[in-house]
Amino acid sequence: MPASRASGALRMLLKSRFRTWRKEEADFFFVPSYVKCVRMMGGLNDKEINQTYVKILSQMPYFRLSGGRNHIFVFPSGAGAHLFRSWATYLNRSVILTPEGDRTDKRDASAFNTWKDIIIPGNVDDAMTRDGSSLVQPLPLSKRRYLANFLGRAQNKVGRLHLIELAKQFPDKLESPELKFSGPEKLGKKEYFEHLRNAKFCLAPRGESSWTLRFYESFFVECVPVLLSDQVELPFQNVIDYKQVSIKWPSTRIGPELLGYLESIPDDVIERMIDHGRRIRCLWVYTSESRSCSAMSGILWELQRKTRYFHQSTETFWLHNGSVVNRNLVEFSQWTPPMPLP
Questions:
Q1: pLDDT per residue as tens digits for the range 101-116
Q2: CA distance linking residue 206 with residue 131, whole number of Å
Q3: Are 212 and 205 a contacting pair, CB within 8 Å?
Q4: Where is the signal peptide (predicted)?
């Protein structure tokens, strides 16, 4: 997931009608961070990133007041919060926005907590999410050449390798071209989506991590997404019944049985699933909250459910007159950075 989503979310929040300049009125504090970009461009090494996070957090009195419970951090890449090595110490109470729901970046532990964090959708190309003028229009089911497709790199992942071999066995049913990301054979944006729309089902296996952008893209070419990623977590589960718009198949059973199952599904059932998908795909679009349905409105719904009236931490105390003090009985308004972190 590119950093453009983090910056896009920041731009939308800056313009939000729910934003306040009065810190004492805020339910949440959004902390912008582009740590993946900094790391990729060589701006800071891992040790320096860690030190920078700790230094900045120590300058934030409201972070100390709540223990970070009402602070929001975005970690939009496969590495997740692990980019901040000490996340488990300092951000273990904060709200993390991420597309990742399981172990990330080949780590043994996940930074995602289903009770406090929020899964956000992948960032589908804007050219495909424009109403009525998308780059590529869906094809009628009767004109689609393939039963299913998988468009992606093998990445030496078992599920993906099985799909590539399956496509060789059943080339008339499953399309799985070898994608080139450079050179004259590289698929352009339009060509990619033209391939994607040419099947009834779009297969979405696990890659380096559990989530895949292909799941979200499938809704805009109107093929039924088939998840082949056992640990995947999906966004906005409090409002979406994914059984109506997608299929999740065990990744351990990728083979002719899968194609036989998909082939047994009548076209009218496929059309019904596609129609349900049309109704909810607006939740994958990162656009202004002024639209009644968008990724931002979904995120705001989730945040509203996490709003607390009262905040505390191990380093905050309160007295009979309602004042909040620190361990030295200094009132909150007089706290000065740097402050010990909770």
A1: 775 555 667 788 989 9
A2: 29
A3: yes
A4: none
The architecture in CATH of the region 126-284 reads: 3-Layer(aba) Sandwich (3.40)
Q: Where exactly does CATH 3.40.50.2000 map onto the chain?
A: 126-284
Q: Strands of 224-228's sheet, edge to edge? A: 174-175, 146-149, 199-205, 224-228, 247-248
What are the percentages of helix, strand and coil residues in the chain, rounded to 5?
A: 35, 10, 50
**Predicted TM-score (pTM) of this structure:** 0.89
Cβ burial of 253 (10 Å; 0-12, 13-18, 19+) is: exposed
Return the amino acid letter for 173: K
| C-alpha separations of 197 from 126, 141, 202, 291 in Å | 17, 10, 8, 27
Cα–Cα distances in angstroms (integers) from residue 208 to residues 67, 85, 164, 165, in the given order: 32, 20, 17, 19
